[in-house]
Amino acid sequence: MPHVTPHRRQYVGFLLALSLCLVLCNLLINTHQSEAQTMMAAKTAAPTSQPATSQPATSQPAVQRSVREVPLRDIMAISDRVDDLITANYKKHNLRPNPPADDETMLRRYYLAIIGRIPTYEETQAFTKRRDRMRRSVLVDYLIDSPGYTSDMFNFYADLLRVKSRHDRAIGEPFINWIKDSVKYSKPYNQMVYEMLTAEGYVWNNGAVGYYQRDMGMPLDNMSNTTRVFLGTQVGCAQCHDHPFDIWTQMEFHEMSAYTYGIHTTNARWKYPNLKDLYNKIRKTTKSKAKDDPERVMMGRAAREMLEPLQYPVFVRDKDLRLPDDYKYDDAKPKAVVTPRTIFGEMAEVPKGHSRPEVFAKWLTDTKNPRFTTVIVNRLWKDAFGVGLIEPLDDIKNDSVASNPELLEYLNQTMIDLKYDVKQFQRMIYNTQAFQRKASIEQWDNTKAYHFTGPTLRRMTAEQIWDSILTLAIEDIDERPGNVTGGRGHDYDQYNAYMDMDADALFTLVKDRSDMMIRRREFDNKRKEIEREIRQARNSKNGGKEKHARSEMSALRKEYGDIVDAGRKRRINKSDMENEDPRWKGVPKDMVRASEMEQPARPGHFLRDFGQSDREIPNNGYDDSSIPQILALMNGPVFQRIMRRDSVLLDEVKDAKSGRDKLETIWVSILTRKPNASETSLVQSELRTVSRDEAFQDIVWALLNTREFMFIQ
Fold first, then answer.
1. Judgement on whether residues 354 and 342 belong to the same structural domain of the protein
2. Among 52, 191, 233, 351, which one is most buried in terms of CB atoms within 10 A?
């Protein structure tokens, strides 16, 4: 929060009054004209595209396709049928739908729902100038085809799949990039899942193996997560005993797990002779040295830094799963070999010579699977409306009933007919009248069915808040690249080259790296000692001693010239990378969209304070309020970045001509609407008592802290 000088203390009351005024305007009254919704008249029960096959394709060309390849009239026909089914449910339950939302509300909702941030001032101005009746549908298509869509959908999948930049000893970046590319190039959802469940190799050659590496060394936990994420079924309790609240038995859990138990994710140094021989040679060379000997320490560290990722490929072993030693049920004996068997649906037998994971993946992603399509449809529906057709999302039981069974059945068939194209499915949702109604402001009672009289009022996710604030501060934020590794870069081409080297060649590289690390440690220790002597000489004003110490520093740098040059080269390369694009000169490297940051952000970061998932379990984010959130908005670096003279918001305010225009620019930029008469009057009275710059700064702060900014209406 800006510093409050004595003559501005009375301004606190103004800020509170303004915030209250905005909340009331948002939640209680309609200050803007409503617009009748016009939809195309043609209605059919299914889209005109060809039905999907029962199995996903085995490959997907890396070609970015526009959503417009499916005609809008076909999508609108599906949307109209969905609205018919929702309207029938209104009548069945004697409900009245919410009124249609106005253009300003829908503009903001579309941006947040599709690309995960608020629209910029320019984007808002461009939309409001349109008067054609299909402007909303055109906007939906534009946003789904934009880079921001990839960013927002990555956040969706990252929460679902518990994505991390680094977990245990595996590298997370290639899996992150694989997810983003799958979204960008419209890879069908069933194909994405099939590729993850059948993935083998190194993660930099096949990013999909990151799915198994996320549960490295825990195949039973991985199966528990797989059934929860893709089948909406929690069977984890049955890992140790029959499920106490569902029908699944411990035997059934192990039968499912037997399909993927042979997938190896832990250290596989033994699999590659060059790596095995290398580590034997390192042990033999350093065996006689003390544990804290620099060469012994650095040889091990150098080998890890260079070669550790090579020890963790994913591959399938011919390995049977056995029941636990303490198995206590009558249907089998402890330690008995388990035969793979599915827990529901058609049996997926494993023919001799076939891969168990492939058989399992085909069964799971088949259109005949009674849960697979329902679960992704339910997740996407909740992502749009705030409530699923079945709640909770990932604890569906055999007796679970959707709030609108006919609608769920139609949506399932639609997903199949659209060949699991998530973009087209979302395009259909966003074109429904139901999605374009005002939000329901009453808190949803999760013990009762919700019948979608409109989307529910929700607070933005942590990622949406962060990305929206950066939209006010930084130019072209959707295009700004980041570093998801958290500063830990990897040369994947070099890893492939290492695999072609024999043990002797690898040992030479490791020895050279070790020697360099030893010299760097020696240089750093000596440098720090001389710097301490320089400080002491300066503090005691001993010029002769300081001069001598500086002479020693020059000699040290000359002696360790290779170390100094290597450090200088790293700094230059890093600086060139950060300043490559003039649009972001001087912008801190960590001020990028949430999808471009280390996954997840570290504890204490703005994102984590506002509820970003820690990625330990699926969809673990939250939207509760907290003191750290208030402090982050009052004093955090993101607010200070907005108030810089070169921020996007202040550039727009600077270009506005009159004081009223400047106020409108601030309101439109932050809330996607103009101030109403009472707000304008309140602010203008304060402008006469406080300096204009201070007033504008406090207005921005006040608006950012309103519920109207924080909530998706």
1. yes
2. 233
